Amino acid sequence: INWEECAVELAGSKSPSTETFKFLLRLSVANRLDALHVGKWQTEGENLINECPDDRNAREERARLLYSNLTTCEQLKEATWLLELALWKAKLDDSASNIRVSNNEERYQCRINCGVQQILPIVVSFLSPKWGSN
Questions:
Q1: How far is 45 from 29, CA to CA, in rounded Å?
Q2: Tens digits of per-residue pLDDT, 22-75?
Q3: What is the pLDDT, as a whole number, of residue 14?
Q4: Alpha-carbon dihedral of residues 123, 128, 130, 131, nearest 10 degrees?
């Protein structure tokens, strides 16, 4: 079952009630929200569902916004892993010890000191979706 398609169709119909729609919407995205493992995004997704309006057109718009933002978050999460690996690789390449860093401790230190804790939050802040409906 394509839950996204079902939820968007139901959003524009006279039934179900707003509370039933919120319940179905919550069920359709629960696994995706849980898989993000980013509390802020999970909270924002829940808030978007909880604030779902009674108007059919607005409900449909809200459902589309939720699914679009979830897709953006999933892509962003994948991209952050790639950025982290690229920063680590650059640090390994710049390592002064050897051309090939063979010591596991040195590799670990390169990962810790590659700057990912400083760079990722800045990058993510620019790429995170706008969760509000305005």
A1: 9
A2: 998 999 999 898 888 888 889 999 999 999 888 888 898 999 999 999 999 999
A3: 79
A4: -150
Contacts of 97 (CB under 8 A, 6+ apart): 103, 106
Contact 34, 42 (CB under 8 A): yes
- Select the more confidently predicted residue: 20 or 132: 20
Query: What one-character-per-residue DSSP string does the chain give?
Result: --HHHHHHHHHTSS-S-HHHHHHHHHHHHHHHHHHH--HHHHHHHHHHHHT--SSHHHHHHHHHHHHHHHHHHHHHHHHHHHHHHHHHHHHHHH-SS-SS---HHHHHHHHHTSSHHHHHHHHHHHHS---S--
> How many Å from the N-terminal Cα to the C-terminal Cα in the chain?
30
Is residue 30 a contact partner of residue 4, using CB atoms and an 8 Å limit?
no
Query: If you search the block for the tokens 């459902």, which residue do you land on?
Result: 63
Q: Which two tokens stand for residue 115?
A: 């700057």
pLDDT single digits (tens) 18-32: 898 899 899 999 989
